[in-house]
Write a structure and sequence with these properties.
This protein is an alpha+beta fold. The chain has two domains: 2-46; 51-234, no CATH class. It contains seven helices and nine strands; from the N terminus they run H-E-E-H-E-E-H-H-E-E-E-H-E-H-E-H. The longest helix has 45 residues, at 2-46.
Length: 255
């Protein structure tokens, strides 16, 4: 009898301890969820809208053509709008341009970083030779922060210019790939996860050096980039309203 009572008492104690731990975990999850929503809500309210722009595709250029994205790319990047096009310049050199746009949402900042020259171009057979180097090029009133790279493929030189542009918040920032952990912490601190994102990648083939490739892009950029509006109408992504936060706060826990 005594043994039975001891076992019953021990099991009761273990059940109470398990219930308390579960309750603490539930409270912790709710607190974290509320904290994340409040943090991004506050950072979004502090972020200034950036000018919006789009690519004015040179459809009349020599050898102009578009190519659909592979299904695997669409499934991985999940962008809302995207296009890749190829054309030749007057001196016979080839240009390739990739434009991707993510609407505001929790994953916009993360998904936009999956498409970078260091990740995508080596998988296509290009070898990184130099970069990245941060430069700024103008397109009308816009000052676009580009990261410049040099790649090579089968004896050909490729100068690559990569720009990631948030619809709101701080522009530019550090170089892609310098510190993945530091980049993630910085993006959380600045609340960039919710903002819409635009990625522009331009590949210039067969230029003799970086200076001549940069000069060619600088001359072409004003006609290639078209400013469309302010991003006031796209402020932030999915975020909780007052009722959602209140419903979390009003959850009744058992006594």
């Amino acid at each position: 009898m005594f043994s039975f009572l001891s076992i019953f008492s021990q099991r009761t104690f273990d059940a109470k301890r398990l219930w308390r731990i579960s309750l603490l975990l539930l409270v912790w999850v709710i607190a974290v969820e509320i904290g994340v929503h409040v943090w991004y809500f506050w950072r979004d309210s502090q972020a200034r809208p950036n000018p919006l722009w789009q690519v004015s595709w040179p459809t009349n250029a020599a050898d102009y053509a578009t190519r659909p994205f592979p299904e695997a790319t669409l499934n991985l990047l999940r962008f809302d709008d995207g296009k890749q096009a190829f054309w030749s310049t007057g001196d016979g050199r080839s240009w390739e341009t990739f434009y991707l746009h993510w609407k505001p949402g929790r994953m916009a900042g993360y998904l936009s970083k999956l498409h970078t020259p260091q990740v995508c171009l080596p998988s296509m057979g290009l070898e990184l030779r130099a970069g990245p180097e941060l430069i700024t090029l103008s397109a009308g009133k816009l000052a676009l922060p580009f990261q410049r790279y040099q790649f090579a493929s089968e004896g050909r030189r490729a100068d690559v210019f990569y720009c990631r542009w948030p619809d709101r918040g701080k522009l530019g920032g550090g170089l892609v790939g310098q510190s993945a952990w530091g980049d993630r912490v910085r993006n959380v601190w600045e609340g960039k996860g919710n903002f819409g994102q635009r990625v522009l990648e331009i590949v210039l083939w067969d230029y003799p050096d970086s200076a001549s490739a940069t000069a060619a892009l600088r001359n072409a950029l004003p006609s290639l980039i078209q400013e469309i509006s302010s991003s006031n109408s796209t402020a932030g992504g999915p975020r909780p309203d007052g009722w959602q936060i209140a419903s979390l706060l009003m959850i009744r826990l058992p006594a």
